Please model this.
Amino acid sequence: MKYTNEQWQMVFTIFCHDCFMFWKREGLSTAKAFEKARMETLSLKHDPFSPKGQEVDTQALSQWEKLYNQQTVDLLYAYEHKNAINELRVCSNCGFPIFYGYYISGSFFCCDKCAVDGAYNGNEERFTKDLEHGDDPRDLMWDEVYWSQWHYPINE
Ligand SMILES: [Zn+2]
Model:
């Protein structure tokens, strides 16, 4: 089955995040790790998650690149240089730039795992509960915890 454009966007972002985490573990800075992960993603020829993965949809990839662009790399370097990377919309747990992810009481998290580890000390149950409460306009937690997507640069 061919992926839809939306599925491709997810494949690229998850792959990029995996590469990013690899380079972070190797000791690279956030900006350097993202720069390498982004290049690795942009040079994908096949779906990296299955053995004989289907060929990459190049249109979907160039759409992905519009979001995860060179400007994002430059921003990460600039803010890293002045030690202010947390002023950007990056994951509070791993540093990955965020266009899709969780907002939790003033912080951003790139995925479920980072949200649970970074904001809930591993307590997945509380995270799930807070997400439900965050979705209810009559609840005190409303708008304090939610998933969202942003189509603008990570410093605005
Ligand atoms: Zn993260």
Summary: Strands lie at 100-104, 107-109, 145-149.
